[in-house]
Every structure is written in C-alpha cells, then in structure tokens.
Hints:
alpha+beta; 42% strand
Amino acid sequence: QHNQKGRPEPLQGIYLPGWVFDLSGQIPWSGLAYNSGRRMWTPVSGEEPILADNVAVPASERIAGPLEEALEETDFAALLPYDPSYLSDWPAETYQRAMSNAALVARQRVYAQARQRVEHNVLHRLKDVKTTSTGIAIDSFQLVLVPLWISAVAADGKQHRLVVSGASGRVYADRPLAEASGLLGWLLQEG
C-alpha cells in the first residue's frame, strides 16, 4: 500500500494562526415575480437575515487546506485564553494574512451561503434576482492559535502532508481520509 522506501518526517508540534469572525446583518434582494392576474412581471424585494458565528479563516499559508479543515471543526467555546507558557515547547507561526483580508474572505463565504438560501427560497419563483453584501457587518474577531502535529512522507512517488489536530486528534491529509489514517499508523510505527 504505502511506499516503504520513503521515511516519514518526525511529527512536529506547532501552533498555526487563524482568524475567527462573528458576522450579522441582512442581504437585501430584489427581482421580478410573474403576476398571473395581471399577466406581467412585477418588482419584488426582501431581505435575508445574517447571523454567522465562528467563521474561521486561516491566517497562515502553510498547509492552508488542512488548516482550514481543522479550523472549521474547532470547538471555539473550548479554547483557552492565551498563556505564554503554552508556547514554551511548541513554536507558533505569526499570521501571514492580515485581518482585513481575512475579513473579506469571511464576508464572501457568508454572502455566498446567504445567496444560496435566497436562490433556494425565491429564485424558483423570480427572475433577474439581485443581491448585495453591503448589509453584512463584522461584529467581532479574534486571532486563535490552533495546535497541530505536522508530518510528511513520500508515498506513491509524491510527498504527502499529514496534519493531526492537537485539540481533537482528528487526521487531515492531502490523501483520502481512509488512506490518511493508515498513513498516520504507519508514521507512528516508523517514527
């Protein structure tokens, strides 16, 4: 299954940064609805409410895909307040994505989800639907450090990244999860 010629890198503990946002507001929408009594299209409008908590955006370019997955599944209520002693044995990467850029990503995600809800709820009855994201506001934000174990191994002629959440123990990888779990077992045996 795995290329036994490749030696795994040792698991390395590291804190990687992520931005977490709470957003609220409304998405105004407008369109045209067919009025069968008058046999014409008439303008209609409405608003889609927004209340999105803990929208996580990686603040690091390192292992962006697995970090994003780990951030999305983080229990933010269980996070501990910052304490410098946590960093005594593990390195921590500083953020590479500015908060303002991460806020734009968070707004785009929330807007896309709300637009999908509008399309699902009203688009089948309307045409020329228009929406805008101007009603979305960021209520709060925080920078969090996500504890991760990172490794890599050469398998099948490629270098595969493996990430283990230090909070949940969940495995993230650039391979399908079933293979990643086997790869983790192999790493622990070989390492």
